[in-house]
Structures are given as C-alpha cells and as structure tokens.
Amino acid sequence: MKWSYQIGSIRGIPIYLHATFLVILVFFIWLFADHTFEMFGMVFGFGGIGVPTWLKYLFSTITSILFFSTLLFHELSHSIVAQSYGIKIRSITLFILGGVAQMEEIPKEPRMEARISAAGPAFSLSVGILAYIIYDIFGPVSEAAGTFENAFLILVGIIAFYNIVLGIFNLIPAFPMDGGRILRALLATRMPYIDATRKAAAIGKSLAFMMGIFGLLTLAGGGGGGLWLLLIAFFIYYGATGEEEAAVISVTLEGLTARDLMTAVPDVIYVPPDWTLNQLIDVMFKTKHTGYPVQESQNSPVLGVVTFSDIRRIPEPERGAIRVRDVMTSEIIAIEAGADAFDAFKLIISGNVGRVIVMDRGKMVGIASRTDLMRSIQFRGAYR
After folding, report:
1. Is the separation of the CB atoms in 141 and 47 below 8 Å?
2. Mean per-residue pLDDT for 4-16?
3. 354 with 369: CB under 8 angstroms?
4. Is 80 exceeded by the pLDDT of residue 95?
5. Whole-angstrom Cα distance, residue 60 to residue 155?
6. What integer pLDDT is reported at residue 143 of this predicted model?
7. How many CB atoms lie within 10 A of CB 192?
C-alpha cells in the first residue's frame, strides 16, 4: 500500500503528504470549526462565531491549510540553507507528527549543521511573532467586531500560537528535533562527531524518559495531555536512538565506496531468465544466497533480480513449469561503484531490499548485499 503521495515540488524538491497527515489535518479542521477555547487572552476556534456551520468549517479549513503550509515552509527553510551548502534534498514529507526534509547526506561540519538546523525554528518563530504583532494591533476578538474581522483575528492568533510553539518545541535539545542537531553541532566543536552524537542522543533519551514519567503521572491524575506527552516521549526516544545508529554507521563506513564492499564479477552468481524455478531452488540450496541477478550471460545486461520471496509466491507443483523471467523483478535497484558505502546502506534500508546492483559505466561490476554492509560495519566498528 502506498502511504505517501507527491503533491508537487518547490525549488526542485518533491513534496509528499503521508497518509497520516490527512488524519491530523481533518482533526484540526474539526477542532477549530467545532470548538472555541481561550489561552493567553487569545481566542482559538470558530465554534463561538454566530455563522452557519458550513462557514465555520470553511474558516477552519483555510486556517488549517495555512498553518500546515507554515509547517511545510519550516522544512523548506532547512532545505534552502542545506542547498546553499551544496547538499541535495531528496524530498520533504509531511506526516502526523510534523515534517521531515530528507537530505542526501548528514552534514558533519558543526557550523553547517547548526545553521541548517536553526533555519526551521527561526522561520517558525519569525512567522509566529509577526502574526502575534498583527493580532496585538488589530485584536482582540470581541463581540463588537464583525464576523469576518473576528474570523481573521482567530486565524492570525492560531498561526501565531502554533508557530511559536512549533519553533520552541523544535529547539528542545533532543533528536530528532532541530535542537538536538544544534546541540550536537555545539558538542562537535569540542569532541569527535560520533562522541558528540552519542552525548546528544543520551541527553535526548533522558529528556524523553522524564517526559514519559510526567506523562504517566498526568494520565494517572486525569490530565488530558498525558497521552500526548507519552507519544512525544516515544517519538523523541526512538528518534534519538535512530539518529545515534545512523551516525555510527555513517562514520564507520566513512571513506568506503560501494566497490569496496561488493562481491565483484566474476564471483557474482547469476541465473538465466529461461531457467525453471526448480533449477533456481537447486542453486539456492548450493550457494546459500536468497537473491540473484538475471542475465543471459555474465557479460550481458542485467534483466532483473529474482529472490526467494518471488519463488514463495508460486505453488510448489507449478515451479517446474514457471520460468525465472516470469517472476523476476525487472525494476533494478542499482548504485554507482564510486558512490559512498553509506549511500548503498541507505538505498538498501529505504528500499527494504537485500542487495543492490553495483554499476560502472552502465555495466554490472558486482553486488553489495545487506550482509556485506553489516559485516563491514561490525568489523570496522570493532577495529577502527
């Protein structure tokens, strides 16, 4: 099932909406249209305005879209600064807990990482403060004002409040928030990058643990925000763990290319497309591999990849008549031989595949498998 859908691109960066984003968007539209609540002398929600329900939902929809547009531009701010340093941005995805800009590489130079990380909170806080100034000049919401004037003030107040909260929240010194990356950048000026990552991750995990305890206590006391605190605590804890693991792997594989890790031709075992699945199974038993490139000969182009999972879909009695070409995957996941080993790792993980074809000038020169990568990570991690 496809979970992310591209809705366009900005500055050459594909913009995706995750399916879970629609859940939070619909929730905010309902919340603002059906409720009215006050905080800090500001009114949030259109439920108390004396207009038809459809108009409340129209105001709420416009407000919610504008708010989530500022979330998109929060991520785009990171991307623009990263692009100024020559870092390619693969995509921006909005999902239920926020957004993420996927970069080709993790910036390891402290000043660069700090500036890229600070760009998002700086944008959110700037928008929030500017919106609050507008609200302060023309507000507050009052019965004496017209319906559309009040609707405008409520919209501006929501944009102000949530962007200020978003900016401050992202400055929490914990991965995967921007504050965690800023903290790592500061620490990296005094210690090696991997040590700075581990220390920043440890701080983030500690904050997540304390937040989780507070969330449990809030839940036990009947507080409504306890569940959200628990969700955020889990988000921070696993985000810190993932960031630490990614940094360790990135540094461990530093200096290696896909060519350094691959099993090179002629040691790569290939299978012809006209073999039956039973013939392929015999080879699998002998070689103990679960995936093979499909070629007419060792020097011919790669036609596809066939794996044990492809075989399992075919009932056993039919495997003697079914050919490899009938079940192989013709979409080849490949990487250039000179590409960074960490890029090969990311390609395998993001594609959830066991191997990638290593190419040089359009010709297969080897295969880099998940096993090859993990073995190199374990070896270099132990002896580097």
Report:
1. no
2. 81
3. yes
4. no
5. 8
6. 62
7. 11
The share of the chain scoring above pLDDT 90, in percent, equals: 17
Q: Which of 38, 75, 143, 245 is catalytic?
A: 75
Q: How far apart are CA 279 and CA 302, in angstroms?
A: 19
265, 366 contact by CB (below 8 A)? yes
CB-based contact 209:237 (threshold 8 Å): yes
Instruction: Give the per-residue pLDDT at 369.
Output: 83
Structure tokens at 380: 């270099």
CA-to-CA distance for 353 and 71, rounded, in angstroms? Answer: 32
Q: Given this model, what pLDDT does residue 18 score? A: 82
319: CB partners within 8 A, 6+ apart: 276, 277, 278, 281, 311
Instruction: Output the six-digit token pair for 145.
Output: 């004002």
- For residue 144, give both structure tokens: 């004496």
Enumerate domains of the chain plus CATH numbers: 4-252 (no CATH), 258-383 (3.10.580.10)
Quote the tokens at residue 155.
Answer: 């919209």
pLDDT for 187 equals 92
Residue 70 pLDDT > 70? yes
- Estimate the crossing angle of helix 370-383 against helix 226-252, to 10 degrees: 80
Share of the chain above pLDDT 70, in %: 95
pLDDT at residue 1 is higher than 50: no
DSSP-derived 3-state class of residue 237: helix
Token pair listed for 41: 């002398």
Strand partners, 89: 103
Give the model confidence (pLDDT) of 196-206 as tens digits. Answer: 888 888 888 88
DSSP lists the bridge partners of residue 325 as: none
Give the side-chain half-sphere CA count within 13 A for 312. 5
Burial 329-364 (b: 16+ CB within 10 A, else e): eeebebbbbebbbbbbbbbbeeeebbbbbbbeeeeb
pLDDT mean across residues, the chain: 84
149 in active site = no
Structure tokens at 76: 């785009």
- Report the 3 state secondary structure along 131-163: HHHHHHHHCCCCCCCCHHHHHHHHHHHHHHHHH
